[in-house]
Amino acid sequence: MNIVITGANRGLGYELTLAAAQRGHKVIAGIRSPEPKGKFLDLIGRFPDQIDPVQLDVCIEETIARLSEKLLAERQTVDAIINNAGILLGRGVAIEEMPMEVIIQTFEINLFGPMMVIKHLLPLMSDGGDSRAIINISSEAGSLSNAYGGDYPYAISKTAINMFSKQLKKYVKNRGIRVYAIHPGWIETDMGGEKAPGDPAESAASIIDIVERKKDIDPESFFISYKGEPMPI
Questions:
Q1: What pTM did the predictor assign?
Q2: Are 24 and 1 in contact (CB under 8 A)?
Q3: 182 and 138 Cβ atoms separated by less than 8 Å
Q4: Orientation of helix 11-22 relative to helix 38-46, angle to 10°
Q5: Domains of the chain by range and CATH?
Q6: Contact, 129 vs 79, CB < 8 A?
Q7: Per-residue b/e over 177-212, b at no fewer than 16 CB within 10 Å?
Q8: DSSP codes joined into one string, 11-45
Q9: Which residues are paired to 28 by β-bridges?
Q10: How do residues 7-66 score in pLDDT, each as one tens digit?
Q11: Is the dihedral of CA 197, 200, 205, 207 positive or negative?
Q12: How far is 104 from 108, CA to CA, in rounded Å?
């Protein structure tokens, strides 16, 4: 499979890239920097034929369009897209003190970015096939029924990505493409923090299981956990 992963060089994105490469998939790994660095560069060295790093900033549509043109020129199709790149800003900030630019930046990365990725890469996904999938990394914070008074930019942007996933699921249903907004769990990454109980490697492996259709998921579900279980909307 050809799997596009955004934010592939760190956190959950790194683990998703590793898990997919270990299973023999080709990963088109989107990263913001022009050149891979650090442990991600080492990961590419381990899987040079399976990880193709590409500069992709989900806030800059030109970089997404350039990737689409590159794949089209190479006659490559896309089997799965994992919109992983995300940001958590404004934690602990009361709404009365929230800078609007923080909300705008959050939506640019957490919502508008995935929408632009789908805009440019959906045409490269062929119809049919058992493993075609679009995964938007969401969060339990995006649940309306479990809303809490805080993390306004992050939570609202994740509610919005859930809605987009629901709309997209309907839109591509007849093409045989599955669409899920997935809560990856509270995992120990730069975003999740050191106190997070979850293992990002375990979450990533389970998400790749979902891409590979190894989990029995209710066909009506669109907001699910990394284990494939329905999340409260």
A1: 0.96
A2: no
A3: yes
A4: 10
A5: 2-225 (3.40.50.720)
A6: yes
A7: bbbbbbbbbbbbbebbeeeeebebbbbbbbbbbbbb
A8: HHHHHHHHHHHHTT-EEEEEESSSS--HHHHHHHH
A9: 4, 52
A10: 999 999 999 999 999 999 999 999 999 899 999 999 999 999 999 999 999 999 999 999
A11: positive
A12: 6
Measured CA to CA, the distance from residue 33 to residue 53 in angstroms comes to: 10
Instruction: Determine whether 59 is exposed, middle or buried from the number of CB atoms within 10 Å of its CB (0-12, 13-18, 19+).
Output: middle
Is the confidence at residue 5, as pLDDT, over 80? yes
Tokens matching residue 8: 């592939």
Please tell me the predicted confidence (pLDDT) of residue 1. Answer: 95
Which of helix, strand or coil describes residue 207?
A: helix
Question: What one-letter code names the amino acid at 104?
Answer: I
Amino acid at 117: V
